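ok so I'm stuck.
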Amino acid sequence: MSEPTLSPRFPHTGLFEFGDQRLTAQEVLNLLGEYLTPERQERIRKTVEGRTCEIVPVLENIYDRGNVSAVLRSAEAMGYQCAHVIELGEKFKSANRVTQGADKWLNVRRWRSTKECTRELKRLGYQILATHLDARARPISEMDFTRPTAIVFGNEKDGISQEMIDEADQTIIIPMQGFVQSFNISVAAAISLYHIFMERQRHLGKQGDLSEIEKTILRADFSLRSSDNPERLIEEILSRRN
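replied:
not stuck anymore, here's the structure
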């Protein structure tokens, strides 16, 4: 029987390095089992069951860190494991009280250019949908979110860049009924991510879609992240066993 393979969109290799030690996910779980309460282990298991890497939010040149944090918090709450943040050299306002630890549980990749990010997203097989009000934009309700999808949100002032518009497979909008033409970035992201969550529930019957081996790896990763100093803890456990 062939070894199970990982999706190219899954953010882990399956091996965890601690100094000169390389451990598998199952070895990590075995080592940490007695250090996590049964309640914590069950919380990790349930969270992993709801995770997906097939849909990723992309934030392009967001000025306010509070907005970045709010989007990441919404993404984590609805089961999205990965996110991409494109930082084009702007000075950001800082905000520290919004994520409530959400970024600790996500795999966030940061980019210095739009092109580098979109090139990687396309290599991984994502369709790129960019929120933008233009002549060719289609309502979000018309999109297929059973496909691997990167959904892009632009900055508070100008929206997405022209380069992102050119790179996107489709621009999309959230239909609105009032006089205003756009939502705040964090609100737009929350509405969009919830819409995608419900669409995937409707068409797939679930949000989470990781393979069993991917679930094991993510459980190990979350178990490590549950410790304030996981490297030190693992090294202490290994030293006692040697």
